[in-house]
Amino acid sequence: MARKKILIIHTGGTFVMESNEQGFLKPGDYAFDYIEKTIPSFFDAEIVQSKLINIDSSLFRPTHWVMIAEHINEHYDKYDGFVVIHGTDTMSYTASALSLMLKNLGKPIIMTGSQLPLINRRSDAFMNLIEAVEVAIDGGLNEVAVLFNHTVFRGNRTKKKDAWDFDAFYSPNYNSLIKFGIGMDKKTHRHLPKKPGVFEIDTRLNEHVVIIPFYPGIDFSNFSIMVRKQKVKGIVIEAYGSGNIPSDNPGLEELFKDAAANEVPIAVCSQSPIGKVNLGLYEVATKAAFYGLISAMDMTREATLVKLMVALGRYRSINKIKQFMTESIVGEKESEHVR
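^ thats the sequence. predicted structure below, dont judge the formating
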């Protein structure tokens, strides 16, 4: 049986950082050689690395999601699995984007990073990478996943929860896919099934989307101006609780009217990370239904934002955009069926 081949893709982040003369962390160049000298000896597999970019993940833009998707597509047939080293701050956004851009995945794409640089003596980087490579070699996943602190999550379900602890990520509305202890505990009933179609990528997106987090006293007038001047193509509202909205606010209703008139879709997610949006629960939410707002159900803010960008990139019809947002495409939201 041929040895499996795994490609480790470097994009930067804390994982590869080192201190400069002033003591501030900056992307370093040592990780590639360090990994080459250490990681392959642990596995009966061919481990290959590629340097794609080397930046702090706070600098990530949608163009970087496209770069990673295209890089995976270019090498897809040559490797059995992929590990993406990425900074933690925007990892959930990138994971959500890749899950939608990489269609009909039949191989694992495992994203990981660290809270401390690889060069640090107490770093979590080495173990995270070891376990990520192990999952990639195992080959049981056909989706984009995030591995952190001995746990594998569906990538488009994750959120960063802690800037200090090694247990930095969680999946508030979908349980873990794999848990590492002295062995690998695979929760196969939660894994996405392999789709029958041929692998392909679709990197179309429109990044002219804004997020509006509700808070008492918010002024919606500037957002209405943006809609009327066609500066924004989609809106994500972070509403209270289960999707509760201040229906007595004339500025908000004006925003709804302007968005409807200009065919700007509005998706509603919750400020509460656990639970789901139910726009029919409160009387005040009836206006949301009247103006055709889209419930994000139990999607994270990160997944909702990225999915709306993708929907706007792929479709012109407001009805098709809403249908795409409503369906579960790659397990990013609660649904009886996954398309």
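The first helix runs from residue 31 to 38.
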